[in-house]
Amino acid sequence: MEAFLIIDMQEGYIGHRRGSEAFDYTLAHINGAKDLFRKAGKPVIVIRDISEGDTPEYKNVAELKVQEQDDEILKVDNNSFWNTTLHELLQKKKVDFIVMAGNAAEYCVTATYFGALERGYKVVLLQNGVLAATTAGLETINTLRPLISYSSLEHFL
Questions:
Q1: CATH number, domain 2-156, options 3.40.50.300, 3.40.50.720, 3.90.550.10, 3.40.50.850
Q2: In what order do the strands lie in the sheet with 2-7?
Q3: Torsion region of 137: left, alpha or beta (phi above 0 gives left; psi -120 to 50 gives alpha)
Q4: Are 29 and 101 in contact (CB under 8 A)?
Q5: Residue 150, CB half-sphere, CA atoms under 13 Å: how many?
Q6: H-helix or E-strand containing 98?
Q7: What pTM does this model have?
Q8: pLDDT digit string, tens, across residues 84-93
């Protein structure tokens, strides 16, 4: 079973980028992929970092179209598996293949990617579905990590 993980797309972390080409482009890819997963009856899991608080500033950006049936995992560390129930949730849903997207390539996305691998999951990143703190960070993740395009995902699911 496949699942879609969306990491840290929160107002306090990316809201200041609203209106930028990277913000709009990335959110369009994430929302499109999210719709594909829902249509296929596959889990969508939204992860929020509350290490700096669980105030409105750390809610998901409004442009991320979260639905009631989406699961939410709250975390306080970079790795979304560390001290959370993510692994148990994925096991319960019989997930073995993860498509990841979100913020930020250099930090939480990479830490969660390795956390998934360490737990035996097959993992790819959604091409054009990851924001980064730096251009170099995005280039690195796009070069070193396996990617899946929206069109490939559409056929895969």
A1: 3.40.50.850
A2: 71-75, 44-49, 2-7, 97-102, 122-130, 147-148
A3: alpha
A4: yes
A5: 15
A6: strand 97-102
A7: 0.96
A8: 999 999 999 9
